[in-house]
């Protein structure tokens, strides 16, 4: 008997914890008496204060509804005493948010007490377990101690009762209490869960309907094709044609929905969706179905809000379903009909939400839709929208698209921090004349810019009536978007944000009608979409403020980051003609938006503030757009590179902010460069704190800024103190005058010339085939450094590759094999020199430079010993030795210059492309022979030191840990941490200080030896970002003596490497002094460069060249590290 086992188990509960009591309760009462299997209850043993009840019971329905929450106490008096029970209800059940949308009962229990409560805290049933009997507290009946009697007393919360779904029957009858969950920033997660539930089921239903309609379309198309063919075969005989034509008309009427959907609506949706970057057919279909579900839910949600704020009588909540049920007592009961009536009843408030759209194809449906609607309405019934603040209501649209859903659909909403920054720095937020201005977002999406611009607009119009303030919103805020669902959502979000004004206007004028906002479904780049999906959103252009010839005062937004090649072919041709003035290669659409803003949309003197890909600042595809902007006054540029993962966490494109005025720049016009902002919090600070903004901004003369870059790029990280130094360096000769830079080997799809390295099978004609990640400063791996993860290339078949680079013809290198220049000055009497074209290398070595990395690094190498693919750029010297050229490229001064002026195609994680044009445009120091010889010797020494590094700390850690058999999770060693995410770039330079390890914003404390090993273990994970919580699961040696021994071995190796690192650092300083002298830099100017390189972001780019011991180098074969051989 389970009850007796339970009583025996709880004997002596005074010494038992609450969490231990949960298991006994669940096993003996919930499972054995009330019949809940373990899969239908969840026990919380975390002892955390927030929002999670002790036990949650799930119903046996198809949703596994969380229908009961349970709070357990060890003291029976906590439940039986009225005051103590009420305190639990107030301070825990309510204050901690245990009650959610699906909750129907609350179970309060102690070892010998069970109270079943409704959501108002009223006790419905109660049982006290007395020494020899059960007491029913409602009837005072006393029953024997049996499982059957306890189950009978608690019958309403048994698993069998859950399957009867009593809450839904109460909902149908209008007797289910509602509105017990208020909406605020703290509780909005409950609403998100409801949206997720609704969308999941609506999508599944819509997907089934879509498949059915697709099959109907195939059948209808086949039948029409047959009839059309038959019609053609009978010729012009009217008598024979008439019945066939009648059949065609009949078939078209019958298939009107599927023909409209699959021949007009869906194809046009696919066409316009390409502007968001969608390419695959399954993605088009998924987005179309998803948007259909969202529109259906949005309408339901709007009806619920209108009910709660008194704009309509209740139909889908509280007593509404019961009234409707009585009304249709003699006809079939369907929620679809109730919802349709509700829609019609609120459509007068804002008709755009309920007019027919391309997303209304799913029809009235069947019993399955009826059931889905009931389950959604039941959950929405729990919420109260009566006193929701404008800010919360206006931002609810964000929760219609969960982050995971947005990522899957390729949609990225603009963060409020970025929007507020743009509103501040365009001047919108403080414009005293804003009521007379117009603001356009030409790719408005859900209209975050419009919603956030409401605050200053309503502030300056506070003295006006609600009716006039709504008219201002309509006149001042204009949005365009090609995506019909985005337009729908934009209307919805702006409507939510002005509902309080609408209610106020209705109080003063009962006949007031909310006008249509100036939000339109159109392709901004061609100005009108070829087909307007939401016909209700189009209205007379003059009355709507949509005159396409009228210019605006502000253009703001976040246009799509989509390259031209992804658009439909016919659109590409049209855009090529429209944007011929700025098109260059595969131009990003954002460049077109920036161009149109200045050319057409803005008034003279108007202001632009936009998010754009950083590629607009430094890629060839935007070169013509940058040239066009030289005639306008760009007044601020902000790089968001360092917060890219924070501000657009799911995107892989780095954004920037650009601000400009439509006016010619004056001679004294200055641009403000804002740099070094690391996260959204700092962007917010830069908006609100003038002192913080000042520390991250620098004012530079506009013309001087435009002329800084040798390649006419926009320099994003330069400061005022850099300008005279960069200008001086730019006047020097460039490296391209004495070198040739080219990409290494491009294999091509057809080439089969590489394979994995196998030491025992390697042939003489096979050379290491390096990638950019193999190359370090002054070092690259030789054949004996390779592992089986690396590749070799068969040079005897080099003609198969797409572009063999210099390996196409190695005759010069073969004729002069073994004769590298040893002077540093270059050798000019090599055999086979090209006297006609003067294409004569001055060394048999050349430089290998990674095409993609955080900064420039170079190594001198022999093309007869190694090959590389086109992730490597080769630099062939025509003056000086390759070692001298590698010293110049590796110098801090070249890295500084390249970072500020020559970065191209910037990628996430601080990486950029260092293309041949970068190397060509590096400033060339004017060297004396003595200086060139010294650079040569220093570079050779650096290469030798690098080659001598056989094992580093990470190699040693991995090999020593492989020999450690007794391990334990780091969390069990009492390591503690604060902070959330560890950035891998913070790991290499971190050091254990006493009992702490500081990794950026994360601090870890504990045993020093464990921290030493933990740092290397984190590096070994080879992840860019590591959740701090993951460190608790990292395995370390279990025994303290083993941890101390491994830490000592690794620290000893680190001490030995420290000598090498210090010498390499000294070599770098000597090289810098020579290069600085050759460029004519004064000691003061050189000091400025040193100082700047210690400032973020140069500190994590320019100052982080890759060396052979760097954790991010390509792992190469190392000799097995044996303990005690730390210095060999």
Tell me what you see in this structure.
With 1128 residues, this protein is of the alpha+beta class. It has five domains: 2-164; 188-396, no CATH class; 397-718, Rossmann fold, CATH 3.40.50.150; 735-946, Alpha-Beta Complex (Adenine-n6-DNA-methyltransferase TaqI, Chain A, domain 2), CATH 3.90.220.10; 953-1100, no CATH class. Helix content is 41%, strand content 14%. The strands form nine sheets. The protein has a nine-stranded mixed beta sheet with strand order 13-12-11-14-15-17-16-18-19. An eight-stranded mixed beta sheet has the order 1-2-3-4-5-6-7-8. A four-stranded antiparallel beta sheet has the order 20-28-24-26. A hairpin with a 2-residue loop joins strand 34 (996-999) and strand 35. The chain is globular and about 110 Å long. The protein starts with a helix and ends in a 36-residue tail after the last helix.
What's a concise summary of this model?
This protein is an alpha+beta fold and 1128 residues long. It has 40 helices and 37 strands.
Secondary-structure map:
Elements: H1 2-9, H2 18-31, E1 41-43, E2 55-58, E3 66-72, H3 77-80, H4 82-94, E4 105-110, E5 113-117, E6 123-129, E7 133-136, E8 142-144, H5 147-153, H6 159-163, H7 166-173, E9 181-182, H8 188-233, H9 238-254, H10 256-273, H11 281-308, H12 320-327, H13 335-346, H14 367-380, E10 383-384, H15 390-395, H16 403-409, H17 416-426, E11 439-441, H18 448-460, H19 466-476, E12 477-481, H20 484-497, H21 499-508, E13 518-521, H22 541-544, E14 552-557, H23 569-578, H24 589-601, E15 602-613, H25 615-618, H26 623-629, E16 633-639, H27 644-647, E17 655-661, E18 670-674, H28 680-688, H29 690-695, E19 697-701, H30 702-708, H31 723-730, E20 739-743, E21 754-756, E22 766-770, E23 791-794, H32 811-815, E24 846-850, E25 852-853, E26 859-861, E27 867-868, E28 872-877, H33 882-890, H34 892-901, E29 912-913, H35 916-920, H36 929-948, H37 953-962, E30 967-969, E31 976-978, E32 981-983, E33 992-993, E34 996-999, E35 1002-1005, H38 1008-1020, E36 1025-1027, E37 1035-1037, H39 1040-1078, H40 1083-1092
Parallel strand pairs: 3-4, 9-10, 11-12, 11-14, 12-13, 14-15, 16-18, 22-27
Antiparallel strand pairs: 1-2, 2-3, 4-5, 5-6, 6-7, 7-8, 15-17, 16-17, 18-19, 20-28, 21-23, 22-23, 24-26, 24-28, 25-29, 30-37, 31-35, 32-36, 33-34, 34-35
